[in-house]
Each structure stands twice: as structure tokens, then as C-alpha cells.
Amino acid sequence: MFLSVFDMFKVGIGPSSSHTMGPMVAAARFLDELRASPFEFHGLRASLHGSLAFTGVGHATDRATVLGLAGFIPETFDSVKADAAMAEIVRTKTVTPEGFGALAFDPRNDLKFDFGPNLPGHANGMILMATDAQGDVTYQQTYYSIGGGFVMTEAELADGKDTDEGDPVPYPFKSAAEMLEMAKIANKSIAEMKRTNEIARGCTESLRSGTARIWQVMNDCINKGLTHDGILPGGLNVRRRAKGIHDALLAERGMNLNAPHTINDWMSVYAMAVNEENAAGGQVVTAPTNGAAGVVPATIRYYLDHVPGATESKVEEFLLTSAAIGGLVKFNASISGAEAGCQAEVGSAAAMASAGLCAVMGGTPEQVENAAEIALEHHLGMTCDPVKGLVQVPCIERNGLGAIKAVSAASLALRGDGQHLVPLDACIETMRQTGVDMSEKYKETSLGGLAVNIPNC
Question: What is the dotted CATH code of the domain comprising 176-453?
Fold first, then answer.
């Protein structure tokens, strides 16, 4: 099994990797299919299903779908150009993606929210359609946004297609047990094996520059979130808090006011800064999803700013280790809140962050695996019930607590020798089973939990 670090960490836009990035990616794929078709098309339509329908407005799924059909993609998204394009689409009732003339598309009539049963493949389903001059559908494709910005067609999902494509890699582990055994035999760290796999599929320089860019975008997102205040969009009137907390923490430095537990506030504020930016639709890195995007960067920033002897040269090792753990979770369970609740998002992110921190702190592969297991175990059963379908409450604070758990798990693992009762593989399987058993109303539908017990106005 091979899942690249650049699959686990993708530069994109908020507020949701599944509900914003995924639909935009699906629309881009659909346009490519139409370009390859010998037929002529005159219009487009779209329908959103399951979680994409129930929480689509709060996650800007409708806007992302429209802009995707107009040719926008997450990696190069420009919010100013997007705003202008949306206004033009509403005015002209057409989209003009590259390679086509004007295609009829009225967002008010050609984009439907279907609140019926989920499509059979996944909770995040959408159908994109192309029409002829008479308005009859002549081509359509069903897509599933399966978490973290990953998109599969109906056929790909039915065929069991995964991300393990291309030439074989030197260390192809599908479980934590296989990973540890390979590390032992090869006398390599998890990051060293992951680096070797990445280079086998790419090159040393692209890995170096790519991971550097990932961290740069993560860190820029933290810094931007720490300097912006105001009210987040969406109608809940949630106030940004990261800047105020950060300003207070800076003011308290050198005043002998800080209790030891204040370090938790630093971890939280880094994560909250990211997720406030995400909630505002800013540029973030999926880690492994947008809803959990704050945990990994907050833990890296904690390491760099607060751990004696920390060095930025180890960030690549952190990201590679994290990606290895995230790949195991995705391959054997899920990173989608719509599929398995928030245990699959913040829980996975905490496991990834804990593993990365443990590695750069000198942990053995066994200690790294232990750290990931501790972090994931104590997120088992966590629901996804965003108020009003917005990635704000409880998501922003939850990322802060996820970072705190990640650091605590790494610390506990480093105090041991790697031997522990519950293997990471068993914890991942438990998370998968828990997600299967979890009621749909607690899986990113906003039909239960906090979403129905907190007024939405």
C-alpha cells in the first residue's frame, strides 16, 4: 500500500475537504471527461446527496460545485477571481470552463439538494450531468467525496480501487504490524522508509521542496489566523478568538504569571488559528482533512517554538511519519467525518501528529506506533455534529484539544519502551467498526447532537 505524503497533505481551501474541496475536484474531473468525449454539450446540472446535501450550504458545497464546473481547482483557488466568477455565473446563467463555449447553468435551478436517502456508495455523493441543446441529459457521472479531498467515481468505488497504483515501492506496508516488522528488519525509522518510498515514485528534490511548501502553507495559515479577528461567516456569529488569546499570551511573557498548564493554551491557539482560517474559507492544508487541519500544524509549531533543541530541519521527518500513520488509517478505516464521525477526522489527525512528534523527539518505531495508538484510542466514538453544518462549533476548539492530546500521547509513549496492550491496528479497526455502528445523525449530517441542541440563529 502506498499513499503519498502529498495525498495526505494537500493545499486547498476551507471550510471542508470533503464538502468543499472534494466537490470542486469532482467537477474538474467531470470537465475532463467531457473534454475527452466526442459529443457536443450545451449545459450542465448537478445534484448533491447525503451529507453533501444536509450540510452543503454550511460547507459551501454548492458554491464549490459551481466554481468547479466553471474551471476552478483547490490548488490554485483565488477568492477574488472566484467572487467575480460567481457574480457572472448568476447574471448570465452560464459557465465557461476552459475548452468549452458558454454552457447553460443556472445555480438556482440546475444545482439540486437531494435530502432523500444517501447514494449507495458513500454518505458524500453527487451526480454531475451534461445536457444537449434540448436540455436532455446525454452524459452523467456519480462521484463520491470520501474524505480529505479524495474523490472516486461510482465505478472506481465499486471496483475497490484504492491509491495503491504505479510501480512497487521498497517498503509497502498495509498495517502497523507490517510497518514495524519492516522497520526492524531494515533497521530504519518510519520516516526513512516513507522517504525511500516517496523517492521511488518521485525524486529527492521534489520531496524536499514539496514538504517545505506544505509546512510553509501550514505556518502561514497559523500566522494569518493569529492576526485576524472579527466574526466568522455563516450566520452563527462565532467570534474569532485566536488573535485575542495569542495577544494575551504574548503580553504575559516575562511577567511570571504563567502557570505550567498555560502551554496548553499555546497548543490550542495555534490549532484554533488554523481552523478559524478554514472556517473563513482561507487556504489550508488537509491534515488529513480540513475539519481537522489544525492539529498537525499546531503540534509542529509547538515543537518548533517550545521544545528545546527543536529544529525546522526535522519538519520533513515529522510530516513523513504522520503521513505513514494517516495512510494506515485511511486504508484500513476512514478519515471521513461523514463516514465515521469526528473520530475519523480529529482522531486521525491526533494520531498522525502524535506519531510525528514522537519521531522528531527521538522515538523508536515502536514508540511512534504507541503514540499514534494512544491518541486515536482516546478519540474513539467521537461524533461529528457541526452546528448549522458549519465547521466552527465544535470543530475549532476540538482541534485545539486534539493537539493537546497528540502532545500528551507522544509524551506518554516516549516514557515507555514501545510495549503496550492495544496495537494500533486493533485501534484503527475499532474505529472502523464504531463508525459502521454510529447513527447517521452523528456523522456530519447536523441531524443530532450539538447541531440540534444549540439554536441555529
Answer: 1.10.4100
Helix ranges restricted to H, 253-364: 262-279, 295-306, 315-332, 337-340, 346-360
Of 3.40.50.620, 1.10.760.10, 3.30.1330.90, 3.10.129.10, the CATH number of 16-158 is 3.30.1330.90
Distance of alpha carbon 215 from alpha carbon 197, whole angstroms: 20
Does residue 284 contact residue 12 with C-beta atoms inside 8 Å? yes
- Domain coordinates of the chain in residue numbers? 16-158, 176-453
Cell numbers describing residue 12: 486547498
* 214, 219, 298, 352 from 264: Cα distances, Å: 24, 19, 11, 19
Predicted confidence pLDDT, tens digits, the chain (457 residues):
789 999 999 999 999 999 999 999 999 999 999 999 999 999 999 999 999 999 999 899 999 999 999 999 998 898 899 999 999 999 999 999 999 999 999 999 999 999 999 999 999 999 999 999 999 999 999 999 999 999 999 999 988 765 456 679 999 999 999 999 999 999 999 999 999 999 998 888 999 999 999 999 999 999 999 999 999 999 999 999 999 999 999 999 877 667 889 999 999 999 999 999 999 999 999 999 999 999 999 999 999 999 999 999 999 999 999 999 999 999 999 999 999 999 999 999 999 999 999 999 999 999 999 999 999 999 999 999 999 999 999 999 999 999 999 999 999 999 999 999 999 999 999 999 999 999 999 999 999 999 999 975 5
